[in-house]
Amino acid sequence: MNTEKLYLPIKRELLEFYVFWVAILVFKYLLMIAQVGLSRVYFRVPLNEEDGKVLKAAVRAHEAVDRNRRAHLNDLENIPFFIIISFLYLLTDPSVGSTKLIIRIYVLSRILYTFTYTILKSAIRIPMFQLGILINGYLTIKVIYHFS
Questions:
Q1: pLDDT confidence band for 51 (50 / 70 / 90)
Q2: pTM score, two decimals?
Q3: CA distances (Å), 91 to each of 8, 73, 84, 108, 144, in order?
Q4: Domain locations in the chain?
Q5: Regarding the domain delimited by 12-147, which CATH topology (the fold level of the hierarchy) does it fall under?
């Protein structure tokens, strides 16, 4: 049995910062779950027939519900990837200042994306989405380069 301990060269300050902001992302994600469910109830838009019996409504589409659902799906497609790649990035011993900036920008871009898509219904969401993709791409390239 190997008794060596795994050493992760992550600065404590960065790890604590990462954990805080990832928790914010997870909380945002949980709020989106609630928002989708509540919008289905509020607009009486059941997901399936058995839910329709409870709501006394037919299964149908509704723009507000669909927007919330698509924003939630977008979170599912993007947030887990960021959580993983940003943790791997912490293993590259990055600078504290730039790492904090990158994480803050990503989290804020996700929040703004959701707000502009579900509330404002504005195309300004597109740069917010692109910013998140650029950050994930940058982190991925840095991790690949560091560990190659």
A1: confident
A2: 0.90
A3: 7, 29, 11, 23, 11
A4: 12-147
A5: Four Helix Bundle (Hemerythrin (Met), subunit A) (1.20.120)
